[in-house]
Amino acid sequence: MQVARLLAAELHHTHPRELCPPSTASLSLREIQTNSLCPLCLRVRPISKRNTPRTSPANSAQQAQPLSLCERLITPKTAKQSFSYLPTMNFLAHLFLSFDDEDVAIGNFVADSVKGEGLPQHSARIKTGIALHREIDYFTDHHPVVAQSKAKLWDKYRHYSAVLVDIFYDHYLSRTWSEWHEEDVAHFAHRHYEMFNNRHSELPEQVQHMLPYMIEYDWLTNYQYLEGMQRVLNGMSRRASFQSKMEEAVQDLRTFDSEFEAEFRVFFPELILFSKAKLEQLKEEE
Predict the structure, then answer these.
(1) Contact 162, 84 (CB under 8 A)
(2) Would the pLDDT of 2 be above 50?
(3) Same domain, residue pair 143 and 276
(4) How far is the C-alpha of 165 from the C-alpha of 151, rounded, in Å?
(5) Are residues 65 and 82 both part of a single domain?
(6) What residue intervals traverse the membrane (predicted)?
(7) Rg of the chain's alpha carbons, rounded to an integer?
(8) Between the CA of residue 217 and those of 18, 101, 193, 228, 259, what are the distances in Å?
């Protein structure tokens, strides 16, 4: 609790100091989607009138509730919350595609939170991981199978459809994990949580603030569950600068479940082959 308060003070939060109090009942998807819950921790959100943002009729539906402390702690310091600052959150695939190299995994994990080749304290191998992450993103963004998945979402979500497909594919990776990796997904997740904690100083400040919540609510393992997906999408929708409707995307995931999974199964083996070859090339260039 004291750590959370110190972080809140550092980030100039005006949200009440206490974290969202625990919920005492199991939650339905409908309850998860309500504004009375923190979309990241699924706990009841304490509301303070002085923290409720002013709204106009045009944006009242999008900003009816203030951000919870959980959300504020993983939101960048900049006041501008544009689409370019929205992390994609598809961490599981990027960690898988680091092929059990810890330095590559750190770079792959933090790449969206650093500019250029990396931070001054980053090793050459971490910088390789950052470069690999960006190569993976480019390959994914320009793949025809991924384009088919995005097309199902484009009319409703526009440019956010690419972000959603990234998250959806992490859902299918987690759901079919045993087909791709010998290690249990929960063990894989907690091994990486421990590694990130042990190498905390090598993480950018934004990621340092996010990590405790990622670990406490076990984001990597919970990608396989629709409730976990709903939590992630609610949080991302809150941080989008426009009304993204991403909090509604779990319904699209249900509707096109078999099609999305089939497309993932075509795409992911190609991504594995590409990533292995690209990683070897980047290592040779270190």
Answers:
(1) no
(2) no
(3) yes
(4) 10
(5) no
(6) none
(7) 19
(8) 17, 24, 11, 9, 29
> Residue 56 has what pLDDT?
41
Same domain (yes/no): 111, 32: no
For residues 167 and 120, membership in a common domain is answered with: yes
Whether 54 and 109 map to the same domain: the answer is no
**Most confident stretch, 5-9, 16-20, 33-37, 232-236:** 232-236
The token duo for 194 is 């421990």
In tens, the pLDDT along 122-144 reads 999 999 999 999 999 999 999 99
CA–CA gap between residue 238 and residue 244 (Å, rounded): 9
- How many residues are given for the chain? 286
Statement to judge: residues 91 and 67 lie in one domain:
no
Residue type, 60: S
Residue whose entry in the numeric block shows the structure tokens 């959150």: 89
d(CA 286, CA 279): 11
Task: Extract the tokens encoding 283.
Answer: 């290592």
Structure-token match 């320009």, residue found: 142
CA 46 – CA 65 distance, rounded (Å)? 10
pLDDT exceeds 70 at position 257: yes
The residue behind tokens 């993204």 is 244
Contact 104, 279 (CB under 8 A): yes
Closest by Cα among 232, 228, 224, 282 to 99: 282
- Whole-angstrom CA distances from 192 to 114, 195, 221 are 20, 5, 11
DSSP string computed for 233-260: HHHHHHHSSS---GGGHHHHHHHTHHHH
On whether the CB atoms of residues 93 and 170 are closer than 8 A, the answer is yes
Which residues, other chains included, contact 162 with Cβ-Cβ below 8 Å and sequence gap of 6+?
A: 141, 150
Q: Residues 149, 168: contact at Cβ < 8 Å?
A: yes
Question: By CB neighbour count within 10 A (0-12 exposed, 13-18 middle, 19+ buried), where does 128 fall?
Answer: buried
User: Do 40 and 239 touch, CB atoms closer than 8 A?
Assistant: no
